[in-house]
Fold:
Amino acid sequence: MFWSGELIARTAPVRRRANPLASPLHERAVAAYLGLAIGDALGATVEFMTPKEIRQTHGVHRDISGGGWLRLKAGQVTDDTTMSLALGEAILTRGKLEASSAAAAFDAWMRGKPVDIGNTVRRNLIGYRKTGNPEAPASEHDAGNGAAMRVLPAALACYGQPPEEAVFASRAQAHVTHNNKLSDAACETLTLMLHDLLIGRDVVAIELDHAAGLSAALPVFAYDRKRCENPSGYIVETMQAVFQAFFATENFEDCLIDVVNRGGDADTTGAIAGMLAGARYGLAAIPRRWLSTLNSEVREACEKQAELLICLAEAKNTALPAPATA
Ligand code: MN
Ligand code: MN
Structure:
């Protein structure tokens, strides 16, 4: 494994709470991280299939069964989750998000021969090895979903910080491999949406502010027209499929089943929809059969990181100077 639980235990600047799940915020953060991993594991089975091929092979794909083009074991996750864990570990080791440590963590992750890796991620990590610059050159072509799929640890670490801080954090991690304005807009939207879902804000307001807000600012993201089937790795199609599934369903399970049965880049739409749905519906809404099939080492790492990242955010928030008294 490329991430190490030990390293976190040794260097984490914060401690887990005695009973983290007693706090609704911690519980939702854990559910978001598990949602990411579950969506990834569920979707990977049907990644690169069309909805028709999925229907012919699985009927409705609703169980974490492994297989797929990567020939996974049931419950195994892919780059979406493992890059997130690598990023989360880098944040916890340093006590903050830095582009340089994120780049080093992704590089170490790539050396660990991950089960899959996106082309843009590989190309720009090879660039980083050559130049040592943790920011990839801006490119119109790098509008893939590879930075958006791993926003969660950065979003948790900057929870409660002003929106400028959230934007900074989402870009610092994203630009290591994707320096592109469509990817940036998606990462920023997802980060702010996650914060609002963690607070428990009304989802209608969230759709208006963040999802509709994104398509108002960049009309290419409009998701209220045709149903997006077979979404590619292009961030626009990924976000359209995720928004359609997320806002049209009313529980965690339906949301994930809707999005992965669209096929295409299903592990990544599953991962992104899963983090949003986890933050929205909480732990109790995650089907037991999915939780128990998820690889236990991955499950433990996700739970632990989610708690530690939220503890880190809380420690920062209370470190703000107290208001001056007369
Ligand atoms: Mn993947
Ligand atoms: Mn994918």
Q: What stands out?
A: The chain has a mean pLDDT of 93. Residues 47, 265, 267-268 surround manganese (II) ion (ligand 2) (CB under 6 Å). The chain is about 60% helix and 0% strand.
